[in-house]
Design a protein that fits this description.
The strands form four sheets. Strands 9-11-16-13-14 form a five-stranded mixed sheet, with no helix packed on it. The chain has two domains: 79 residues, Immunoglobulins (Immunoglobulin-like, Sandwich), CATH 2.60.40; 122 residues, Sandwich (Jelly Rolls), CATH 2.60.120.380. The N and C termini lie far apart (128 Å). Strand 5 and strand 6 form a beta hairpin. The protein has 243 residues and is mostly beta strands. The protein is globular and about 55 Å long.
């Protein structure tokens, strides 16, 4: 007896194909999310030739995007600060009213950073200022005035000089010790200005149109480089002739 074979219908073919594809395709492979390693920067802020500074604003800014803040805090009564949860390279910007702004960086791992702040010295054109410079005096931040404090590793102090408008400002630096050599530099722009070095008195005149900076440096005492134990009182007098 012969068995009749019939051709599969279209519906049968569809059911056959469907039954052969019962397993689903595996999901596409995805890369695991990178692990972000958090870090902290902590430390203490003190005053130059002084003790701990409270209420100092410490701000972390992204090293690759300086205008972007990554975190901020204020120092406590002991001058201590701590910034947690940082995930990218940062620089520190440190500020407090009455002190020169300073900073430190670049950090991408746990670090303890101790910072020193210098009191801001200010004088109005036509007025005088007395101060003291030591062999370890600091010019906070990078010296972009052209005075050569960083390049020559000099002890320096910065003084903010305010002028009422365009005119000629004359700055005169005097000190009592004949064995001390000091420097006087008046900034007129980025890495520009007029300076003198030597024995007392030193005098510099510049054409000023806006507030500027005066840099006093402690070059030598009795023919040697000053040390932290050396201190030199000085007086800064200014006159202004408007244009």
């Amino acid at each position: 007896m012969r068995t009749l074979r019939t051709a599969p219908t279209a519906l049968g073919l569809a059911l056959l194909v469907s039954s052969c594809n019962t397993s689903q395709s595996p999901p596409p492979l995805t890369s695991p999310s990178p692990t972000v390693r958090e870090f902290s920067v902590s430390g203490q802020v003190t005053e130059d030739r002084g003790g701990p500074l409270a209420g100092v604003h410490v701000e972390a800014r992204l090293a690759d995007s300086p205008g972007t803040r990554a975190g901020a805090t204020d120092s406590d009564d002991a001058g201590m600060f701590r910034l947690d949860g940082l995930t990218q390279r940062v620089n520190l910007i440190v500020s407090k009213t009455g002190y020169q702004q300073t900073g430190a960086g670049t950090f991408d791992a746990d670090r303890v950073v101790n910072l020193t702040m210098v009191r801001r010295l200010e004088v109005i054109a036509g007025k005088s200022l007395t101060g003291v410079i030591g062999g370890d005096s600091l010019l906070n931040g990078e010296d972009d005035t052209g005075a050569g404090c960083d390049a020559n590793n000099l002890a320096c102090l910065g003084v903010d000089l305010s002028v009422p408008g365009p005119g000629t400002v004359t700055v005169r630096l005097t000190w009592p010790s004949p064995g001390s050599q000091l420097g006087l530099f008046v900034s007129t722009g980025f890495f520009a200005g007029v300076g003198k070095h030597g024995a007392s008195p030193l005098e510099v005149s510049v054409d000023a149109r806006f507030a500027t900076s005066v840099i006093v440096s402690y070059d030598s005492v009795n023919g040697r480089r000053p040390t932290a134990a050396d201190v030199q009182p000085f007086e800064l007098t200014t006159t202004f002739n408007p244009r």
